Amino acid sequence: MSHSNTAHDPATAEEESAIAGTSLLPRIAGRFGKTLFSLVVTLFGLLVVTFAIARLVPIDPALAVVGPRATQAQYEAVRAEMGLDRPIPVQFATYLGDVVRGDFGRSNLTARPVIEDVRAAFPATLELATLATVLGVLLGVPAGVVSAVNQGRWPDHVLRVVGLLGYSMPVFWLGLIALLIFYGQLGWVGGPGRLDVSYELSYELDVTAYTGSILIDSALSGAWDVFFNAITHIALPVFVLGYFSLAYISRMTRSFMLEQLGQEYVTAARVKGVPERRVVWVHALGNAMVPLITVIALSYAALLEGSVLTETVFAWPGLGLYITQALFAADLNAVLGGTVVIGVAFIVLNLLSDLLYTVVDPRAR
Fold first, then answer.
1. Shortest CA distance to 128 belongs to which of 226, 245, 210, 207?
2. pLDDT tens column, 155-176
């Protein structure tokens, strides 16, 4: 009597594994190729838009350089030097090549290469937006969960009103009121800028610029007096931007959680006797985190690009304040350079959020 052999031959298993790996590689390569192509197309579109803005705004870059009292010959010479007398396609090709090399021209405002100004200003914006996003996530996600669990009851109403106020109030107005109360009247926080004037010399002498973040660099250098003084200055702008981020994240978290709490798997978990805390904070929130990742990434990107008014109010020497000052000075090179950097940051954050899908949601893999 013969018996069928149900055990797998090791050699056969290895062959099946090799075949599966071979079929997986083209899919990975195809997905990587699509992502890379999408990234290149998006960056190209960003450069087209910024170039069009530079040509459509009623600002003459050559006139901004030479001034209104220059002669016509001087004006024409500068215009030719900047390449503005060439055909538009040639100007765009030159602009594209310069940006690819990281050359955004020189700033009329600082007389330095724009890329150097951006490198000096961007860490301050990154520091501010990062801390504000962390604050928004730590408070906004729990607030959204609590609001969804208590739908229609007083905690839901209170949290929705708090979120609505943060989402509706102009950031610059909230910043001015916060400065007036917490700095002008109560003196609980530091004023505009990143440091008190009395600490600026200590910062230059005792702090090594490892990252450009004043908190990280002062901590790594052991300059704790500078560190704690910097905290008093960054606390208020972080609160203002963090409140805006909190309002948006809590609102979206509530929406995602309501959708998940109405699913059949939540009902089944409750019927099986799974503790309510685990149902809400593990099962429902775990599934809600998939779309929430995109919300957090977009909120972070919005703070990077939307911190212009906040940095202006708090005299925060970041990229937003740099772009604002350049705009008032008709410094198009600086404005376009800062705009391109923020646009690239926006694209990179969207790409990272897509990659995180594969970590949070196994179905995406």
1. 245
2. 899 999 998 888 788 888 888 8
